[in-house]
Amino acid sequence: MDHSAVTVPLFAGSVLIVDGVFAFRPEIDGYWDFRVWLHIDEELSVARGAARDRDWAGSDAESLHRDRYLAAERVYRREAGPRSRADVVVDNSDFARPYLLTKD
Q1: CA 47 – CA 72 distance, rounded (Å)
Q2: Domain positions in the chain
Q3: By three-state DSSP, how is residue 52 classified?
Q4: Phi, psi at residue 77, to the nearest 5°?
Q5: Cβ–Cβ < 8 Å for 39, 91
Q6: pTM above the 0.85 mark?
């Protein structure tokens, strides 16, 4: 859903949480005060994405996530080093039990 036309007033002390792919790119990284990196195994990421998108992507869902999204994520991690930019790293492999990891 496109929310780009929605505006909400912010007040002193407000906290804005931004969730986005490639959000630690150097050209926008300076806008964030605190960065959280959600870690997940590549294969689990592909499986989750394929399951989520199967309704609209059909039988192409897994290859879309493996060949396009995962390939782009690898380039991003290599070029931008997002995990090293994070203030905290959370292992999100188990939705019911996320836990903090040490940064490396």
Answers
A1: 16
A2: 26-101
A3: helix
A4: -65, -40
A5: yes
A6: no
